[in-house]
Amino acid sequence: MTESSQRQSDVLVIGGGIHGLSTAFHLAQRGVSVTVLEAEYCGRHASGVNAGGVRTLGRHAEEIPLALASRKLWHGLRETLGDDGGFVASGQLKLAETPAELEECRLRVQSLKALGFDHEVLIDQAQVFDIIPTVARHVVGGIWVKDDGYAVPYKVVTAFRLAAERLGVKVHEKTPAHRIEQRGQQWTVSTPGGVYSAEHLVITAGAWARELAAQVGEPVAAHPEGLMLMVTHRVAPFCAPVLGATGRSLSFKQFANGTVVIGGKLIGSLDFAARHGEVDMTRLGTSARTVTDLFPHLKHLGVNRVWAGVEAFTADDLPVIGASRKASNLSYSFGFCGSGFQMGPGTGQRLAQQILGEHSDISLDAFDVGRFDSVASASPINPVQPVISVPHH
Ligand SMILES: Cc1cc2nc3c(=O)[nH]c(=O)nc-3n(C[C@H](O)[C@H](O)[C@H](O)COP(=O)(O)OP(=O)(O)OC[C@H]3O[C@@H](n4cnc5c(N)ncnc54)[C@H](O)[C@@H]3O)c2cc1C
User: Fold this and answer.
1) Please, which residues have CB within 8 angstroms of residue 277's CB and are 6 or more apart in sequence?
2) pLDDT tens-digit map of 321-361
3) Taking CB atoms and a 6 Å cutoff, what residues make up the pocket around ligand 1?
4) Can you list the domains of the chain with their CATH numbers?
C-alpha cells in the first residue's frame, strides 16, 4: 500500500472525542472506510474528562428522541463494543427542595407527557427517601428516571476507539487538521504530517469545530467554556443514583470506589489558545455547599482533585448535528453544551445513518447548522476566510 493510499478513505473524521469515535464506529459497522484525525490524543478534552453522567432527565424536548435512542445503546454497550465503559444504570434523580420547585417538576413532567414522553416520573418525598435514605429531610420530592445512570468517560472513549479500530478505522493522534478544502469530489485536510483525503468529511472537533466550519464560510453562534468538576476522598456508600437539583446547579454521583464526583455545568475560566480550562475555587465552594446542604454528614469530607475541561456551547443551547448548508459531503456534530457524553452513542449512529442516506424516524432538524445563518457568530475566535466556494444544497 502506498503512503498516499493510506491517507485516503471514504470518510475523514476530525476530532477523536466520543462523537468522532462513535460516528467512525457506526460508519465502519456499515462497511465504510474511515480515518480519524485527532490533534492531541483521543479523549483528551471534554469526552475524557467529564462527569460521566448518562442523563435523559431534563433534556430539551428537541433532544429527547436522540437521547432516548442513545440510552438504548448505553444499555447494550457491552454487546456492541465488547466493553460496558463502566456504565451503571443507577437512575438519575432531580431533587425539589421547596413546594415551588416540586410544582416546577410537576409542570415539567406534565408538559413532557403532552409531547408523548413518559421517561421522567414525578415522585413524592417518601419515594425520594426510599431511593436515598441519607438525603436531608427538607427535600420534598423530585423527578426520577430509573434507566439513566453514569459511566467512566475515558473507558467509554477507549472502548469506542478500540471497537472502531477492530472494524478497520485508522486513528491518527497528534495530527491536528489545519486547513480543509474541497476539490471536486474530494475533501483534503492538511496536517503537519501530510495531507489526508476522503469523499466525505465529518467535523467533530468539539470546542474547536467552529473554527473549521468558518473555513467553509459556515457561521455558528458558539463559544468555548471551561467546565469544572471536583472529586472527594472515599466515603462509605450513601447514594446510589446520580443527583441533580431543581433550584440550584448540581450534578452529583458516588462511584463504586467511594469517591463523590461533584459538577453541574460549573463554569470556570478558560485559556482557549492553550486548549486549557482552569478552576475557580470560589465557584467550586458554592457547589460544595449545595452538597453539604443535602448531605450534612459530608461536611468534613476532603476534596481530592479538581479540574476543568473545555466544552463548546451554542447560543441556543442545542448541538449542531447534520449536513453542512455551505458545502456538499460535509457533516457536523459538536456544540453539546455540557451534556454531550450521554448523546455520543446515539448521535454517532444517527449521523452515520444520515451520511449513508439510511432512513430514521429521529429528526435532526432542530440541530441544523443553517439556523445560525442569520446571526453573527458570538465572540469571534480567529475568524478564517472561506477557502472554497461551493454551492448550497
Ligand atoms: C467537566 C465536564 C463535565 C461534563 N459532564 C457531562 C456529563 O456528566 N454528562 C454529559 O452527557 N456530558 C457532560 N459533559 C459534556 C461532554 O463531555 C461533551 O458534550 C462531549 O464529551 C463532547 O464530545 P465531543 O466529541 O464533541 O468533543 P471533545 O471530547 O472535546 O472532542 C473533540 C476532539 O477534537 C479534537 N480536535 C479539535 N480540533 C482539532 C483539529 N483541528 N484537528 C484534529 N482534532 C481536533 C480535540 O483535541 C478533541 O479531542 C461534560 C463536559 C465537561 C467539560
Assistant:
1) 225, 226, 227, 228, 268, 269, 270, 271, 307, 308, 309, 310
2) 999 999 999 999 999 999 999 999 999 999 999 999 999 99
3) 14-20, 37-40, 44-47, 49-53, 176-177, 204-208, 227, 229, 251, 263, 309, 311, 334, 336, 338-342
4) 3-50+154-221+316-372 (3.50.50.60), 89-147+224-314 (3.30.9.10)
